[in-house]
Amino acid sequence: MRIIAALLFIWMLGTLPALAQARDGSVRQPLEVILIPADGGTEDGTRADFLPLFNALTKTSGLHFRVRVGQSYAAAIEAVCTGLADVAWLGPTSYREARDRGCAELLAVESTNGSATYFAGIFALKDSGISSAQDLRGRSVAFGPPQSASSFVFPIGILLDAGIDPRKDLSQVRIGDSHTSGLVALDNGLVDGAAASFVSFERAANSGAIDASRFRIVGRSAPIPNPPMVSAQALPPAVKSRLRAALGALHEQPGISADDIRGYGGKRVDRYDITITDDDFETAFRPVAGVDSAFTAALVRRAGTYR
One Pfam annotation, family name (predicted)? Predict the structure, then answer.
């Protein structure tokens, strides 16, 4: 069903005025924006999270946008790589995948209080007797999609640092379609641990999807670069430069309020940092370099299916 949904989404985008080269950001040919599906909200909710940002960019740059939400991380990557999207908000891992396929280029990363990073965690229930990542040996853990840095790649790094290889040292591996699905599974007693970003945990708690008072943090990741705003490699350089400059200067523009500058989870952010580079991403991902495609494939086989 996941593959069918992704294909249907790509087919839907294919009904749009299709060639990226023909889209110049004008009113008649707005730039197509694709967003990865955020946790804890509806598709319309994720779109609403970012509309203030793109409306502000239109006001300051004159570029126009049509904003849509992918059905999955994979669908968002494919939209960029097949020329159906010009701009994307991707997760750090999905950006690196699209970049390595020659499809995407980094534009900017949200920053608040001087930080352009966020954190992943592994959570357990307080009454489970689990107080550290080491206690998860022989237990069950729920992860998010493999394209997610904060619900898959970096939580696996936490386990590996604790001496636990999830391919063989867990009793059960569940791989879901979102951070929230794992947290809900944990709240319902279906697993012993769940991986998610702290942003997604907060959003799930605030929405009532989970009872946060029952949870404890048993592992915390190293800093992860915030989900980046990227452009399709095929976007004309002049449009790319115009958009990057507009993102970098947005927080300084008259008529733009703090409510207009939004990021992950719809939160207000201070600004978009255009000085972050691919080297910064590679430095952050170096400790989890072992969580490569072969490792991921083995864990997916262990899980047997997405849930």
Answer: Phosphonate-bd
CA distance 282 to 225: 10
149 secondary structure, DSSP code: I
Which CATH number is associated with domain 117-224+287-303? 3.40.190.10
- Which ranges in the chain belong to alpha helices (H)? 2-14, 43-61, 73-81, 92-100, 154-161, 179-187, 198-207, 237-249, 278-285, 293-303
Delimiting residues of CATH 3.40.190.10 domain(s) in the chain = 2-116+226-276, 117-224+287-303
pTM: 0.87
Residue 35: count other Cβ atoms within 10 Å of its Cβ.
23
Give percent of the chain with pLDDT exceeding 90.
79
- Burial-class residue 203 by CB neighbours within 10 Å (0-12, 13-18, 19+): buried
Q: Which of 232, 241, 239, 240 is nearest to 84 (CA)?
A: 232
Region for 40 from its dihedrals, namely left if φ exceeds 0, alpha if ψ lies in -120 to 50, beta otherwise: left
- Per the listing, tokens 């968002």 go with 76
What is the rounded CA–CA span in Å between residue 307 and residue 303? 9
Residue 93: φ, ψ to 5°: -70, -45
Provide the pLDDT for residue 19. Answer: 45
Please tell me the distance from the alpha carbon of residue 259 to that of residue 165, in angstroms, as a whole number. Answer: 43
